[in-house]
Amino acid sequence: MPKKAVVKKVAKKAGKEPAGGCCCGAKEVEGKLVGKVSHYFSNIEVAVIDLTAPLKEGDTIRVVGGQETDFEQKIASMQIDHKEVKSAKKGDSVGMKINDKVHEGYKVYKV
Fold it and tell me: pTM of this prediction?
């Protein structure tokens, strides 16, 4: 007869959150989630972002992910299928020049 796995529960103390975030260390992010990075081309510093909300040239975005990445930048230009566009809608995959290195899965917010 196989042995049963023992699961230990860890009790959290109420009201003991560290300054600047929740108890798990996640970052609080202002703004609306507009997409997620699906690919990053490091040689040309371009990220492909799958949009979950509309975005347009001139908007300010914030990219958050991993332990260290959290930066804002203004959208100077965007491309869809190698064609320059001024705006993109929910469901589009857009390419844009990014100021810092990002990885697949990083979240993109409109601020």
Answer: 0.73
